[in-house]
Design brief:
Strand order of the largest sheet: 1-2-3-4-5-6-7-8-9-10
Radius of gyration: 19 Å
Number of strands: 10
Largest sheet: 10 strands, antiparallel, barrel
Number of domains: 1
CATH topology: Lipocalin
Order of helices and strands: HEEEEEEEEEE
CATH architecture: Beta Barrel
Helix content: under 10%
CATH superfamily: OPCA outer membrane adhesin/invasin
Length: 188
């Protein structure tokens, strides 16, 4: 019994020693929308080695259109399903808060899927899908692109983002906002 306990303790400590203590990802994007003016977003994520406790992420986007503005914030917890040098996949859930000058003022439940191909290399590809729905309102936010490593933790990224709001509320209106993005991504 003592040998089994000591072996279990040794295995547990050896896996704990090699686990990451804490990690963080952050960045900002400029978004050149087709018909809705200037836009930008900032995001941050914190990853930890505690099992069963989700990692946390926050992203805020502001769109300043010619006739209206739109702001949204995504707050969610996620789990790393895969994390190696070939592929990284995160799945999570949280809330999508949207408000703007066209009478948008909603908080919707959201699911998130985030993937990156070749995250350990100098050149990688990323994609992110957020889907939010509550009664008649739904929001689909899809982005994809590529990252180029400049320094060990700093990357340039460029891609395309498609943001679609559907509603049957007479005071608000449905909208599709899309265009190219460019920014900086940090992975510490």
């Amino acid at each position: 019994m003592k040998k089994a306990f000591c072996l279990s303790l040794l295995l547990l400590s050896s896996t704990t020693i090699h686990a990451d203590i804490i990690g963080a990802k952050a960045g900002l994007d400029y978004w050149q929308t087709k018909d809705h003016g200037k836009a930008g977003s900032v995001f941050g994520q914190i990853e930890h080695p505690v099992p069963l406790l989700p990692n946390i992420a926050l992203r805020a986007t502001a769109i300043e259109g010619k006739t209206d503005s739109l702001n949204n914030v995504d707050a969610y917890g996620y789990y790393e399903i895969l994390d190696n040098d070939l592929v990284s996949i995160d799945l999570g859930a949280g809330l999508h808060r949207i408000n703007g000058s066209r009478h948008y003022d909603e908080t919707l439940p959201m699911v998130v899927a985030d993937a990156e191909l070749f995250p350990g290399s100098d050149f990688s590809y990323y994609s992110k899908v957020n889907y939010s729905k509550k009664s008649a309102e739904s929001v689909t936010d899809i982005s994809a692109g590529a990252r180029l490593r400049l320094f060990p933790a700093i990357h340039l990224q460029a891609g395309y983002r498609h943001y679609d709001i559907k509603t049957d509320n007479a005071a608000a209106r449905s909208a599709t906002i899309q265009g190219f993005t460019a920014g900086i991504y940090m992975d510490i």
